[in-house]
Amino acid sequence: MTATEIRPAGKASLPAGRGRTRRGGMTRYVLARVARLLSIIAGVTFISFFLLKLTPGDPVATALGPEATPEQVERLRASLGLDRPAWEQYLDWLGGVLHGDFGTTLTQPSRPVGGELAARLPVTLQLIALTIVLSLAISIPLAVWSAHRAGRTFDRAVSSVLYGLVALPGFVAALLLVLVFVFHADAARTAGLAVAGAALAMTVVAALRSRRARSSPLPPLIGGGAVAAVGLAVYALLPDFPRQGFVPLGEGVGANLTSVALPVIALTFVDIAVFTRLLRGDMITELAKPHVLASRAKGMSTAHVLLRESLRPSMFSLITVVGLTIGQLIGGTIIVEHIFRLPGVGSLLVASVRNGDHPVVQAAIFVIATVYVTVNSLIDIAYAYLDPRVRQVNS
Amino acid sequence: MTVQPTKAPGPRLPGFVRGWLPLLLGGALVGTALSTPMVLPVVRLALAVLGLAFAYAGAARLLRARFGPDFDPGLWLGVAWLVLIVLAAATADLLPLPESLDPSKALTEPTYAAPSAAHLLGTDQYGLDILGQIVHGARVSLIVGLGGVLIGGTIGTLLGLTASYLRGRVDGVVGWGTDVLLSFPPLVLLMALAAVLEPRTRNICLALGILVIPSFVRLSRAAGLKVAGQPFVLMARALGATRRRILFREILPNILPSVLSYALLVVAILIVAEASLSFLGLSIQRPQPTWGNMIAEAEAKFQTHPFLLAPAVPLFLTVYSINRIGDFLRAGKDGG
Amino acid sequence: MSIERMSPRVLGTGLLAFALLSAGCVSESGPDGPKSQKVASNLVRGGDEGVCTPDRAGGSVTITEQNEYATLDPAGGSFNFNPAQQIYSSLMRWNPAVSRHDPLLAESLTGNDDHTVWTLKLRESAVFGDGTPLDAEAVIASVERHRAKDSLSTWAARARSISAMKAVDEHTVEFTLASPWAEFPYLLGTGVGMITNPKVDPARLASKPPAAAGAGAFVFDHWTPGNELVVKKKAQWWNGPVCLDSIRVIAQVDSKARKDTFTKGEAQVFVGTADLEISQQVIDEGAHHAKYPLRLGLTPNFGIGADAKTTIGADRTVRRALQLALDPKLMSDRITGGVAEPTTTLVSSDSPLNQGLQGVAHDPEEAKRLVAQAKAAGWDGKLSVMALNQPNNIAIGNQAIAQWKTVGIEAELHTLELADFVKASILGGGGFDVMVSGGGNQPLPECTSCDLDQYATKGAGNRVGYSNPKMDALAEKLNAAQPEQRPALLKEVQAVWNEDIPRILYGQQYYLAAWSPKLQGAKPSRLLTIDLSQAWLTR
């Protein structure tokens, strides 16, 4: 699932920050954050336990399969300790976690839950890292140029496309990517060539026109050239994407990257839109500030004005949102993991919920909540460190 | 590569041609895409998208020529679409649509039929009319989106408002609860709720509503804090107004606009969330149509029967429109 | 109009559209639907190319299955057939191409005249991974684990029909059965015939069988549940060279995704179960395959566990109405894309076992009459149908419900996740009257008598509580019957069946194990299992 669909709405739009000490300085602030973090994690495990107790589902039945007999089910249930009272099982689990032991899976073959999570976390983390990097790489240039050309054709076209990206549900995006790049890669290559050709033709005509208009032919040449280059790159370099599966980094960087490319692209759609819209808005505000107008008037280059004077200060809220996005992606890669059969935390979670494998679900929720809360706390702390007002002002 | 009219010397194409040409070209492309079965579906899809982009650009130019340069055609198209889909969903039972709900009444209909006069978008594996299912599915999507927001928005706003006004321990508890709920992987919450509750419209509303409570708490708390410090609130307090009066008469009306414009965006998010749940088989089940479960069912067949994917279009358009309008409202509020 | 005056955008689009159109016109095969209603013909294609020779060595194979199972221990319950087959091999092998059990690990298996004593001869060269000989003692110890009182084995009930085992000599085992069973070789082709090394601790077999555990051509390498299970070839195998370096088994629940993986060449073996239309497409696209007949239908609940006294499925009048209201042709068209043979007979029309079987004909008028009759007797006309939360099962449930509605039955579909579904279908308490799918519906050409295990009162596969003395008697007879007597007996079964409707039928189709023609020497074995010990990949 692209995170974003089920990501709690609007987390991104509000800066985090609450429960601060009045004048405690950095140390006290950090300590308070850590205490809060622990209490939240404790709350999450507690709720998840009760929630899971409510759900039906019988791991024993799954373990034995549809050909089992009732006697076999009872025997296995007893041997797994599932006939004991619920609270006893929970206390056992909690005690184990405090010693770093997450117990063993109920689903057979029984194996340590900790190892299971450790095997799957890297896959999800790689997805998240690549998604964030790719989203930023695309959205920062888009946002900068959109802000520069606010209200003009480029800006309008970009914002239309962004609205489209937000409106495309992650699973539809993933299915379309599979259809195009896995099963019609040749058509995609040809289309890349076609785009390159059309872009070149457009560039030539536009350049001729701008020469007649005695304006610089450089912008159309750069823009058209970039599009043509992308088209040609698609034509010449498009690799063969696998339909499913994950290739670990150890088996070759190229194979690893092609195995996660489509899931990552599907995940970036919404993030690109969110990042670009945020940064564009901030930059437009920044560009209207007196000091920027002043340096423009002084004849500073566009690049200097855009990158030095307005992009830098605008990055602040973008970083906050990036942090929140990381936290949300950790539990939000479920749909792409499902569609592309990636062995990540999300698919483990879905399978375990369906199989009624409560120790795994509890441990996975624990890990996801921990990552989420930690990332958020780190951002808050970084914010407080960078901007001392945060520590003192009570929201 | 914008072409500035002032910079372009010499003869230019008349405005109406520059509008109509892309519009017609776009229409022609979409028509080609829909009516050429011998071309790869992917290419038909690309053509249709390209055609739509052009038709939109052309129409936008024509409309701007007619209504002035500030006219935002995307926004108005969005409004028009939403009006259309809400009307269609509200009057679904009255519309003269072929059977689209009860498979037992479609036993003699052809299955996987291509679009025809009888079935404008064809039929599915039960012989049910796809257009009719899209209209009825709109009802589910809209009810889930609005219902979820109503539940989550009401609870969340009240909690946030109370927390922002009372501060202290209440604020601490609400804030803690919000953080706990936010740290919970949302899909697990939904799956757990789906396992406990029967997947019916009401319960999906409830589950999604619970999911969006925290964001409303945060929003209304932040907005409430801002308003609570305003002079008129302090004055009301000094005049001895009751706590309830201050909360509901003074603060609530002031934060309502921002809550409502945010709520609209959440409606879009929940519509997509419901579709995603359907895709995982965790929402309302067939044969009751929802856009999500129709797309999920189409997954295996859409390469040979592309019209099964039709529900993706209204899903896309609705989410697009809501986002567009929501952003417009928010921008208007911030600006004004 | 000079080119410079044209809007570059219009020009660009024109060119782009033209280029796309020409790119798209490449070619596309017409979307002809798969069409086959043949079940017993062309059961197997390929697999007879020979055996691995050292010059054919190299390459790896991926098998994509629908589900992942819980254990690698053949006596451990729901176990992974395909990897287990490579690790342990089996004493006998069902050869679907010629409908016969052939010895695989064994030298021979012969029965006495009344099928009560069976003599198994072992090959002298057969050894486990650590060099321990696969001898009579090993066989007895291994089969004993299936018979044991606390056995979790899928075949426990059938294994207990062995009343005594005796090692005649080092390489000969004599099995004595409690009652005549002509199809005993079947048992040694299942997990019971996968002999495990008695020196290996059985507890280790479930998830990490050591190299010493089996006599097959491969050894277990690693298993990351939810991702993959890999076996690697034995450096030295007693039965000749092994060509494939490794075999990887993955699971994809979604049939379309599984077919995509196979079509894309990311898997060389496709195991198709639920979605028959997809299976037929795989065949139509030229894959080599083995088909395993499948009886399509819905299972009434006769009362199990907590459901014992509440279910409508136990009411014969209602059951008959449900069967009569179902139009097999419509079901086949809408559920399987017309691929299945619409019939209510126990086996397909082209099966050698079918010598003039007559099923129950579609008769909605009679169904209406029966519904009215049942309602007069106090039934409220409501029905609860349970299906696994999986698109194909939901579609089957909905189609059946739609047709039942036309005769006045108000049925409601409840979808369950696998764990709940299995629990409800084993232990009851689901409160359902009719269940979609639910396993155990193969006519099993490799064991005709086993088919009735699902309907005999004490049968191992009888999980819906069905009981009918006539059926029990016929099951007994079928056990002892010679092959040539079976078609006539099956006619008797069909007569009882039509009377009592133990299951609501609508078609005959097959499960599919398919493999790429590049994979040669693959030996299809019992139900959806493929032995790859002597297979190789062409380059």
UniProtKB/TrEMBL annotation, chain A:
Main localization, broad class: membrane
Any Gene Ontology CC annotation: plasma membrane
Pfam families, sorted: BPD_transp_1 (PF00528), BPD_transp_1_N (PF19300)
Subcellular location: Cell membrane
Biological-process GO terms, alphabetical: transmembrane transport
InterPro entries given in the database record: BPD_transp_1_N (IPR045621), MetI-like (IPR000515), MetI-like_sf (IPR035906)
Annotated protein name in UniProt: Peptide/nickel transport system permease protein
Automatic annotation (TrEMBL), chain B:
A Gene Ontology BP annotation from the UniProt entry: transmembrane transport
Compartment(s): Cell membrane
Keyword DNA-binding: no
Keyword terms of this UniProt record: Cell membrane, Membrane, Transmembrane, Transmembrane helix, Transport
Topology in the lipid bilayer: Multi-pass membrane protein
GO cellular component: plasma membrane
PANTHER family reported for this sequence: D,D-DIPEPTIDE TRANSPORT SYSTEM PERMEASE PROTEIN DDPC-RELATED, OLIGOPEPTIDE TRANSPORT SYSTEM PERMEASE PROTEIN APPC
The keyword rRNA processing is assigned to this record: no
TM stretches of this protein: 20-39, 45-63, 75-95, 140-161, 173-195, 259-284, 304-323
Domain of life: Bacteria
Similarity section: Belongs to the binding-protein-dependent transport system permease family.
Domain ABC transmembrane type-1: 138-326
Name used for this protein in its record: Peptide/nickel transport system permease protein
From TrEMBL, chain C:
CDD domains, A to Z: PBP2_NikA_DppA_OppA_like (cd00995)
Annotated GO CC locations: ATP-binding cassette (ABC) transporter complex; periplasmic space
Pfam annotation, one family: SBP_bac_5
Residue ranges occupied by any Solute-binding protein family domain in the UniProt entry: 103-446
Domain of life, per lineage: Bacteria
UniProt GO molecular function: peptide transmembrane transporter activity
Coiled-coil positions: none
Gene Ontology annotations of biological process type: peptide transport
InterPro entries in UniProt: Peptide/Ni-bd (IPR030678), SBP_5 (IPR039424), SBP_5_dom (IPR000914)
PANTHER family: PERIPLASMIC BINDING COMPONENT OF ABC TRANSPORTER
The protein's name: Peptide/nickel transport system substrate-binding protein
Organism this protein belongs to: Thermomonospora echinospora
